[in-house]
Write a structure and sequence with these properties.
four-stranded mixed beta sheet; mainly beta; 38% strand; Immunoglobulin-like
Length: 129
């Protein structure tokens, strides 16, 4: 039942001067994408009614990790870590990524905050080393 938690580093590089024009939203599209793309290991988690796979993951304290949540269910689900103020919501049949950093070592619960889902067993554990 456990989905392999893939770890890989996303690398980005910045070059010297550029002749690209900045947009009104602040910076070139490439600049904005680099700022929005989280760095660190990527942890893939699948969500469906009413479970996560895997339901246990491990992170390093203070290190950003990209949580990639694939919703294989028929309704919207989320992965929430209340103690870290983290919530990643994904519509049915889609995948989304978001950076998560937990500074303090310990054990943290993650869950789906859709009404009734946590009580139905849609939860898991993050161990921060």
């Amino acid at each position: 039942m456990a989905l392999v938690a893939a770890a890989g580093l996303l690398a980005g590089a910045c070059g010297g001067g550029s002749d690209k024009k900045e947009s009104s939203s602040g910076g070139t599209k490439a600049d904005r994408t680099a700022m929005e793309t989280p760095a660190g290991p990527k942890l893939e988690v699948a969500a469906k009614e009413f479970s996560f796979a895997p339901n246990t993951v491990t992170l390093k304290a203070g290190q950003a990790a990209t949580i990639s949540l694939k919703n294989t269910g028929s309704i919207e689900h989320d992965l929430s870590v209340s103690d870290a103020g983290f919530k990643l919501t994904v519509p049915a049949g889609q995948t989304a990524d978001k950076a998560l950093t937990i500074a303090k070592p310990g054990t943290y619960e993650f869950h789906c905050s859709v009404s009734g889902h946590q009580d139905a067993g849609m939860k898991g554990t993050i161990t921060v080393e």
